[in-house]
């Protein structure tokens, strides 16, 4: 089927992941918690904690607000639903200034829109909802090139679960065989879409592991190469 929609991963694909930057999230998150709740002895520990419970039955289910409430309740801190949401918002900080668009990202997005392709960003986020993530693209100056942003927080399911890709396809008004997903993670951005019947493009300079099944439909070293590849699928 001709291509009608392109789904993009965010971190590591559209947005470059700088090396050796320390932890640029810590200060703004702790500042936001202090602003909303005052000094709390649990703030530092919570920031460093993995609040996700191990669930063998539904490993990709995401219920961040419930996880936050449960983590605090185990430590004697009981918050209302409204307070839990304020806490979640404290964690939902914009991308720090050290992050920027990846090489070729803006041109690839422009090419997709110039060829009437729906563009949807699909991203795993612990605390940032759809609109929180879209705000980053406002700063990068490319928000008008993106039709929708689909986050795992807002969806309730993380990649590679089919639910997050199905939601993105609904926004794009495309069937799986009319869409492709572009990302840098084989386990999240290739395996998930392929299981749904989508085409998948791996962004990587590494060789494909010989035992990885199903393989991506194509590999590009960077998004600079993407338009030439997608041209074949129009």
Return the CATH class of the largest domain: Alpha Beta
What is the succession of H and E elements? Answer: EEHHHHEHEHEHHEHEEH
Q: What is the strand content?
A: 5-15%
CATH superfamily of the largest domain: HAD superfamily/HAD-like
Q: What can be said about the biggest beta sheet?
A: 6 strands, parallel
Write down the CATH topology of the largest domain: Rossmann fold
Helix count equals 10
- Spans with pLDDT under 50 lasting ≥5 residues? none
Helix fraction by DSSP (H/I, runs of at least 4): 25-40%
Number of domains: 2
Which architecture name of the largest domain does CATH use?
3-Layer(aba) Sandwich
Q: Helix/strand-derived class?
A: alpha/beta
| Average pLDDT level | 96
Describe, in plain words, how this protein is organized in 3D.
By secondary structure, this protein is of the alpha/beta class. The chain folds into two domains: 5-17 and 99-231, Rossmann fold; 26-91. The chain has ten helices and eight strands. It has helices at residues 26-37, 43-48, 64-73, 81-91, 105-114, 130-140, 152-155, 162-172, 186-196, 226-231; strands at residues 5-8, 15-16, 100-101, 118-123, 148-151, 179-183, 199-203, 218-220. A six-stranded parallel sheet has the order 5-4-1-6-7-8, sandwiched between helices. A two-stranded antiparallel sheet has the order 2-3. Strand 6 (179-183), helix 9 and strand 7 (199-203) form a beta-alpha-beta unit. Helix 1 packs antiparallel against helix 4 (81-91) and helix 3 (64-73) crosses helix 4. The longest helix has 12 residues, at 26-37.
